[in-house]
Amino acid sequence: FVLPQPVNKGSTVRNIQAFQVLHTIFLKSSTQHLSCVALDSISSVYHADDCNYFILESQSTLSQFAEKIYLKDQESQVKFLQLLEFLVFHLN
């Protein structure tokens, strides 16, 4: 991977604790709707700026999600895999 430069100030993650809230919501959610909303929000953060992946990498979000994804519904699993696909093909 090549570390990208931030696109602009408005799309770069500045509040990692707020992102951790989304991370926790997804891991603890018990409904399909809440899981999907959390994943959509997380996906929008990663899509907003390429450097967000590298800023958030230390949070181990993707690996923790991968460990628990089998407990989630099919729609959440599909959204998670789409996010992984985006990151692999877009950042490579």
**Total beta-strand segments:** 0
Uncertain stretches of 5 or more adjacent residues: none
Radius of gyration: 13 Å
Average pLDDT confidence is 92
- Percent of residues in helical segments? 55-70%
How much of the sequence is in beta strands? under 5%
Q: Tell me, what's the shape?
A: globular
- Whole-number count of domains: 1
**Largest sheet, strands/sense/barrel:** none
Distance between the termini: 6 Å
Query: What is the count of helical runs?
Result: 5
Question: Topology as H/E string?
Answer: HHHHH
- Give the helix/strand class: mainly alpha
Give a summary of the structure in a few sentences.
InterPro entries: BEACH_domain_protein (IPR051944). The chain is 67% helix and 0% strand.
What does this molecule look like?
By secondary structure, the chain is mostly helical. It has one domain (15-91). It is built from 5 helices and no strands. It has helices at residues 16-28, 32-48, 51-56, 61-68, 74-91. The longest helix is centred in the C-terminal third of the chain and has 18 residues, at 74-91. The mean pLDDT is 92.
